[in-house]
Automatic annotation (TrEMBL):
Keyword tags: Repeat
Organism of this sequence: Eschrichtius robustus
Organism lineage: Eukaryota, Metazoa, Chordata, Craniata, Vertebrata
Domain MROH2B-like HEAT-repeats: 1-131, 134-516
UniProt entry tagged with the keyword Chaperone: no
Protein name (database record): Maestro heat-like repeat-containing protein family member 2A
Length: 1184
């Protein structure tokens, strides 16, 4: 039998097994004895098939009731096979596939036999346990000496095998039953716990199969079982001995494996309750020494073991890590920790990464109170140190981020943190931000940025909390790092996973940061960070930004709701930012924008308690469906419908903020976006324009500020149409705002006015208003009775007003549509020109010009030049009107000429000009009254009102107004005898006033001329007592230095000579005698006109001498030759010699006073007259 072949031996043993299992009554004890002898003879055979056959016989004997026959040898054999098979499977080589398969079969049969034995009599189970312990000791003694108690050894072995409970035909159930049966023998203190918990574990395994069970769930059940078991041994070294055995078995398993992974966990749990910290440290150092850090599985296993150990041994763990760090050389050379081992050498950087995670794992598992003591130093300090002193490659960055997450999560989970401040937070944040910034924005090759954002999310939950500025910086950097990434294409699933994870991490970070400032300000800050990404050219950036905005609203709306209302104008700004995106070229972006708008509208409706019925919700849903089409016309139509639905929910302030935001973002992206923006603006203005009276200036100002940057004609046209719509309903406000724009008039503003000119009714209304603005400058300021009055009375730049009038008239007078405005325009411009001649013309730097320029206005931009360019008045240039008006010295002359020409050319509109003039006559503005008076002087119908209002001009100090008043009085006398006689007293009195006192020559000249015109229409009796005053005042100006005054005085004295009749003849005769010498001398006046007037007046007064000889000697001509004058003088002297020698002598004396005259011709004339007078006088002396 011993020498037979394996097949023969296996067959024999199989036959014996069949005999034992036959249950034949005739089978006696002898037969069983012989069978056992045969089996014992084969126990030394180590071939797998023989071993399995022997094990089957032993199991069958136990089942058949022959348990006593297998005591001793049988139980010992089974225990040896169990130990041997387990050892061989743990150390199997992959190259020996057949041998491994056979050993697995042996192990399976062994476990079946163990299950049979442990389910039989308890006494036999105890005996099997004793044999199993002996077998274990024999099997391991070959490798090294083990002096551990058998219970810990066996429990360690069973724990190692337990992670794979379904191997070996369900070995897990058999081992659990074995533990339950041997509980009193292994660890009596654990017996009660095992009695309760093992049935639950068995039940789980029985309810599942190797195809339905969950590895993680099973291990999560085993670990509490182990922890609860060890808790029963508290106060003893039982767990420490178990830890040693588990530590010894670690190298028996390959990496990775379920058994080895569970070993690391179990080791950590068993070390935690150890009483002797120094022995725990020895075990941990031994574990560190034999760990291959280049192997990810082993490295993570050791990290987990250290963390679990820190539950009860945090100081020991930290001491071990510190000792380990002391053994690392902080240099470029690697620390050869395990130099003699055959595994791959680890690098210094790898150990640093492992140490960082070890520290964080310690923080994750240690007791909260111990964590608060050690978290800042050494745990976080060591993590920062190891990272800062490393090469900071991807692996180290990931290890650092993982460490930060674990540490912060551990601190956050501590209850009753109270005022705990995480001191290293600022340092950690700075490092993480630097890591995110260093990540490439055009590619995604690692989860570094995702882990960094996760770390920031965890840090944000610890005190001290980030400030608003820090929140913004963190989000800004993180958003830039993720949104700029282009979505991965192709079939690279790993990159797609990284991409999705990065987006999720960014959303979580946003949520974490927003939670600390969950109010309208925090919402606005976050939206502001997203804004620049909502409006870029790259569609994937827009899509991600809009989705982030949507996520933000999904966080904000449920959390805040109606509790904290949005700030004034915030709702409009938020809608204005998103609304153009409903016309985006990218479908998903359009739909996400629609979702954001819906969230905003829902939030606003709930906060304002406004009506938001189902019909509006349904309409928005329809619009959202239409946004999914590819036809952009339908998309724009849907967006417009959304605007109409949303518009009703806006207050006036929100409309303003909406328009401002829409205008701000014009040209931020593309033409499509700009069209959507101006479309929304147009719809809101059309629907709400009547309600926006108080907001027109803000809206218009916003449009005007952004209009210059709009370069596309259609977009610009739509914005200008919005301005015209506002002007139609709120003309005064719009006009004031437009007139407050700076000079020079830029092309966008010019385009606005040109568009106004195309709308004739609006252009006419604007021109009326513009002229009213200019006229209001010269009228008393009225009190405003309405908001429109406030804007109408607001101060505007007259120069810009004139430029606007010029532009409008230039573009709208082609077909004479504005001819009825001719009087208003002429008079308004005349008033403006008159003001430019006054004091205000001394400061040419106007308000709106100084906004953008320094210094005076250029020559081509001034009030006079802009005014005279009006096309309506172009025909007057031929008359030289503008040349006269441009000069202050000839302004009144030009104004009068302009008035006369306007009367001639404005047929059909003559009534309007008098109305304007009469209004101006009552003005308190000096320049206004001057211009009005200048027109009155030339208007026959206005002479009477002018005469009645004359007191406002003649007696005042202003020279121009007195001159015009006097001219009006004089003109009133022309051909209006009845009116002159009616107002003769007033006329004569006011004209005489101009001849008294210190007045300017121009005022006196016009007073003399006015008197001359009045006297021409009066009779002697009408003049009354004023005759003497007129005569005396007139003679006083004969020798005046002003040629004009001398001329006017000679003419007036001639008019007096005509008026004189019987009653005044004697008086006037005396006046003629007093004036005769000046009259004769000024016949040679250097001023030709004065000389001619003097000659005419002198000859008109000759008849008052009453001498026919003198009358016959004068030819009554206005022109007289010097010879004739000499002859007339000689004749006069001869007559006087004969009839009035005393008068002649007085003439001679008076003539001698003129010898020293300042006028050469007068001195010569005086000498000639003196000579003519002297000869008769000398003759008289001789006679006497």
């Amino acid at each position: 039998m011993e020498k037979s072949k394996e097949a023969l031996r296996v067959g024999t043993l199989t036959l014996i097994s069949a005999v034992v299992s036959a249950h034949e009554p005739r089978m006696n004890i002898r037969t069983i004895h012989l069978a056992i002898r045969v089996v014992k003879d084969t126990l030394s055979d180590t071939r797998p098939k023989v071993r399995m056959a022997i094990l089957c016989i032993i199991g069958q004997l136990a089942l058949s009731g022959f348990q006593d026959r297998i005591r001793g040898w049988g139980l010992k054999y089974v225990s040896v096979q169990l130990t041997l098979s387990t050892y061989k499977l743990a150390h199997r080589r992959e190259s020996f596939y057949q041998r491994n398969l056979e050993e697995e079969m042996v192990y399976k049969v062994t476990m079946d036999t163990v299950r049979i034995i442990t389910s039989s009599v308890s006494a036999m189970t105890k005996e099997f346990w004793l044999h199993a312990g002996d077998g274990e000791a024999n099997a391991t003694s070959k490798g090294r000496h083990v002096d551990l108690p058998v219970p810990q050894k066996l429990l360690a072995r069973l724990l190692v095998l337990m992670p794979s409970p379904y191997k070996g035909e369900g070995r897990g159930i058999a081992m659990l039953n074995l533990l339950r049966t041997l509980s009193q023998s292994i660890a009596p203190s654990m017996a009660d716990t095992w009695e309760l918990e093992i049935p639950l574990l068995v039940k789980y395994l029985e309810e599942h199969t190797e195809f339905t069970w969950n590895q993680e769930t099973w291990e999560d059940k085993l670990i509490p079982f182990l922890r609860n078991s060890l808790r029963r041994t508290w106060g003893s070294n039982w767990s420490l001995h178990l830890s040693k055995e588990l530590n010894n078995q670690i190298e028996s398993f390959d990496s990775p494996s379920l058994e080895k992974g569970f070993l690391y966990r179990a080791l950590g749990f068993t070390l935690a309750p150890g009483l002797e910290a120094d022995k725990v440290e020895v075990l941990l150092l031994e574990l560190l020494d034999k760990t291959d850090y280049s192997n990810d599985f082993d490295r993570e296993g050791v990290i987990l073991c250290f963390g679990l150990c820190a539950r009860g041994q945090v100081k020991a763990v930290l001491n071990v890590l510190h000792d380990s760090e002391d053994r690392i050389q902080e240099s470029e050379q690697s620390w050869q920790m395990g130099a003699g081992r055959k595994d791959h050498p680890w690098r210094r950087e790898t150990v640093k990464g492992a140490l960082m995670v070890m520290y964080s794992c310690v923080a994750s598992y240690c007791h909260p109170q111990m964590l608060l003591t050690h978290v800042d130093n050494p745990i976080t300090a060591k993590i920062i140190h190891h990272y800062s002193s490393s090469c900071q490659d991807i692996c180290l960055k990931m290890a650092f981020m993982k460490s930060v997450v674990q540490v912060t999560d551990a601190v956050k989970n501590i209850k009753d943190l109270e005022d705990f401040q995480f001191a290293p937070k600022a340092t950690l944040t700075g490092i993480i931000m630097a890591i995110i910034k260093a990540e490439p924005t055009d590619s995604l090759v690692s989860p570094v940025r995702t882990m960094a954002m996760d770390a920031l999310s965890y840090l944000s939950k610890l005190k001290p909390f980030y400030s608003t500025e820090e929140n913004s910086d963190l989000m800004d950097i993180s958003i830039h790092s993720v949104i700029s990434l282009q979505p991965p294409g192709g079939n690279n699933e790993s990159i797609k996973t990284l991409y999705v994870n990065a987006l999720c991490a960014l959303e979580q970070l946003m949520e974490g940061l927003v939670q600390r400032q969950l109010d309208p300000k925090g919402l606005q800050e976050m939206v502001h960070l997203l804004e620049k990404w909502i409006l870029p050219e790259k569609e994937w950036e827009r899509e991600k930004a809009i989705n982030l905005h949507l996520h933000l609203m999904q966080i904000y709306v449920p959390s805040v709701g109606v509790c904290i209302p949005l700030q004034l104008g915030q709702f409009g700004a938020l809608v204005g930012l998103i609304s153009p995106c409903t016309c985006d070229s990218h479908r998903r972006t359009r739909l996400a924008s629609m979702d954001v708008l819906s969230s905003l509208l829902d939030l606003h409706a709930s906060q304002t308690c406004s009506s938001w019925g189902a019909s509006k919700e349904l309409e928005l849903e329809k619009c959202k469906g239409d946004l999914q089409v590819s036809d952009m016309e339908k998309v724009f139509s849907a967006s417009s419908r959304i605007a109409k639905v949303a518009c009703l929910q806006f207050s006036c302030d929100e409309v303003v903020s909406l328009v401002q935001k829409l205008c701000e973002n014009i040209r931020a992206m593309n033409l499509q976006h700009d069209k959507a923006s101006v479309t929304w603006i147009g719809i809101f203005l059309q629907m709400r324009v009547k309600e926006l009276e108080d907001k027109v200036a803000e809206i218009l100002g916003t449009i005007l500020v952004h209009l210059p940057v709009v370069d596309h004609p259609e977009v610009r046209r739509l914005l200008i149409e919005g301005i015209l719509l506002l002007a139609h309903y709120h003309q005064e406000t719009v006009l004031t705002s437009l007139l407050r724009q700076p000079l020079p008039m830029e092309s966008p503003l010019t385009e606005v006015w040109l568009t106004v000119a195309e709308n004739l009714p609006l252009a006419r209304a604007m021109l009326h208003a513009l002229m009213g603005r200019l006229q209001s400058r010269f009228t008393p300021r009225a009190d405003a009775t309405s908001k429109a009055d406030i804007w109408r009375l607001a101060a505007v730049d007259p120069l810009l007003t004139l430029c606007t009038i010029h532009l409008l008239t230039e573009k709208t007078d082609q077909d004479a549509e504005l001819l009825d405005l001719f009087p208003d325009l002429v008079y308004t411009l005349l008033l403006q020109l008159s003001s430019s001649q006054g004091p205000e013309a001394m400061s040419p730097v106007l308000k709106t010009w100084s906004l953008v320029h320094t210094g005076t206005l250029p020559e081509e931009i001034n009030l006079q030049r802009i005014t005279i360019k009006s096309p309506l008045l172009r025909t007057l240039e031929e008359q030289g009107v503008w040349t006269l008006l441009e000069s202050s010295s000839t302004f009144l002359q030009g104004a009068s000429l302009l008035a006369r020409l306007c009367v001639q050319n404005a047929e059909g509109y003559r009534q309007r000009l008098p109305e304007l003039v009469l209004r101006g006559m009552a003005s308190e503005a000096l320049s206004y009254r001057i211009s009005s008076m200048a027109v009155c002087v030339e208007q026959e119908k206005l002479l009477k009102p002018a005469a009645l209002m004359r007191e406002k001009g003649v007696d005042r100090e202003d020279e121009a107004l007195r001159v015009l008043s006097l001219r009006a009085l004089g003109n009133m006398a022309l051909g209006t005898l009845k009116k002159v006689r009616q107002y003769r007293k007033l006329l004569l009195e006011k004209c005489l006033c101009s001849l008294r006192g210190p007045v300017s020559p121009s005022v006196t000249a016009d007073g003399l001329e006015a008197l001359a015109k009045v006297l021409a229409e009066l009779r002697e009796g009408d003049v009354g007592s004023d005759f003497r005053a007129i005569s005396e005042r007139c003679r006083a100006f004969f020798d005046h230095e002003s040629e004009l005054l001398r001329l006017k005085a000679f003419v007036l004295f001639g008019k007096l000579a005509k008026v004189v009749r019987i009653s005044k003849k004697h008086f006037f005769k005396e006046g003629v005698k007093k004036a005769w010498v000046p009259l004769m001398l000024h016949c040679q006046d250097p001023c030709f006109d004065a000389a001619q007037a003097c000659v005419a007046t002198m000859f008109r007064c000759v008849h008052f001498w009453g001498w026919k000889a003198l009358e016959s000697s004068s030819d009554q001509s206005d022109a007289i030759a010097p010879k004739d004058m000499t002859r007339f003088q000689i004749t006069l002297c001869s007559v006087l010699t004969q009839k009035k020698p005393a008068v002649l002598y007085s003439f001679l004396l008076e003539t001698m006073t003129y010898v020293k005259s300042n006028l050469l011709r007068i001195r010569i004339a005086a000498c000639n007259l003196a000579g003519a007078s002297y000869m008769p006088c000398s003759q008289l002396s001789i006679l006497n």
